[in-house]
């Protein structure tokens, strides 16, 4: 047994032992050792590479699994990737931000559908009730009264439907491009509503200058009209409203509408641009004595500004009131606009 073990040890030693007698033997030995070293390093690199790649791709697997599992009903889920602030972490944070925006968009769409159905269903139900009561009454005066009530409800339903059509048109970008003088448009609309402002006890001013933009004249008229109407509707007796149009140094055209009124915070102002959200939910509110509106005015403004590649900012004023500022790309060079 001892002889056999000693013989095996000599065999192994013989495998590792290389006799170098000449230069050729040295080169052969060097080649052999180099080949063995390269093979060992290759195997080590494969193992280390497989381990490192697995560690690096683990976050990507988590991102892929999370995004695959997210659907309309699970938009609240987030990747929430932990670890160093590298490119993969930045990708995960970007996807989380996109999911947050998608969740808000889906929620707004659901609220819009629910509110739209409510706004259109309520007048129809009221019309049906009025007709049933009028037809059941033998008094002809009840029919005349029902007629006037139906006319009011029909007018409100028509206004809501037209506002929804304008909103859909602005969202889909079906615009007629033509040069429009926004300053002249604002001046014309302010002159038209001046009697309403005086009747409501609101001081309306409109320092406007020629300011040309490329866009849809019908939608831009709706944009200015909604902002002016909002400034008068949500105001108080003895309050002020100001509409200013001009051109900034960089050539962009601005429209600013500022009014006094209720005390607001930034969250309320941001929600005011959601469809069917009213700044004043009262049926008869504000200084004008008109209905509070269908809650689509500022949402239409936002869609029209977006369709014209403009920017929209709204902020509460101190101590009360609201300022809405719109910037649009210029439509004509300054020289042509002046001419």
TrEMBL record:
Record-listed E.C. numbers: 2.7.13.3
Assigned keywords, A-Z: Kinase, Membrane, Phosphoprotein, Transferase, Transmembrane, Transmembrane helix, Two-component regulatory system
Residue intervals passing through the bilayer: 29-53
Compartment(s) of residence: Cell membrane
Annotated Histidine kinase domain residues: 115-332
EC top class, as a word: transferase
Protein name listed in UniProt: histidine kinase
């Amino acid at each position: 047994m001892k002889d056999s073990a000693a013989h095996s040890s000599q065999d192994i030693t013989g495998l590792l032992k290389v006799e170098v007698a000449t230069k050729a033997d040295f080169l052969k030995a060097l080649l052999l050792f180099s080949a063995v070293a390269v093979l060992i390093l290759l195997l080590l690199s494969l193992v280390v590479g497989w381990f490192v790649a697995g560690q690096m791709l683990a976050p990507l697997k988590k991102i892929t699994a999370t995004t695959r599992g997210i659907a309309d009903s699970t938009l609240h889920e987030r990747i929430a990737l932990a670890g160093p602030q590298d490119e993969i972490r930045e990708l995960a944070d970007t996807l989380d931000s996109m999911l947050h925006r998608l969740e808000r968009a889906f929620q707004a769409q659901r609220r819009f559908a629910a509110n739209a159905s409510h706004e259109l269903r309520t007048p129809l139900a009221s019309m049906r009730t009025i007709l049933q009561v009028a037809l059941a009454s033998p008094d002809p005066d009840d029919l005349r009264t029902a007629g006037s009530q139906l006319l009011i409800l029909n007018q409100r339903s028509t206004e809501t439907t037209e506002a929804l059509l304008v909103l859909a048109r602005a969202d889909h970008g079906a615009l007629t491009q033509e040069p429009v003088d926004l300053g002249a448009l604002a001046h014309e609309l302010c002159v038209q509503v001046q009697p309403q402002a005086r009747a409501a006890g609101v001081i309306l001013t409109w320092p406007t200058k020629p300011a040309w933009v490329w866009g849809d004249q019908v939608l831009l008229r709706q944009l200015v009209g909604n902002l002016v109407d909002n400034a008068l509707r949500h105001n108080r007796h003895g309050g002020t409203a100001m509409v200013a149009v001009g051109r900034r140094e960089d050539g962009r055209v601005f429209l600013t509408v500022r009014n006094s009124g209720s005390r607001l915070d930034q969250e309320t102002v941001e929600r005011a641009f959601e469809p069917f959200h009213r700044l004043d939910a009262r049926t008869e509110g504000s200084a004008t004595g008109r209905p509070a509106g269908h809650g689509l005015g500022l949402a239409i403004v936002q869609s029209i500004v977006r369709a014209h590649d403009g920017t929209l900012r709204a902020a509460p004023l101190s101590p009360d009131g609201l300022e809405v500022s719109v910037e649009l790309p210029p439509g004509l060079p300054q020289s042509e606009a002046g001419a």
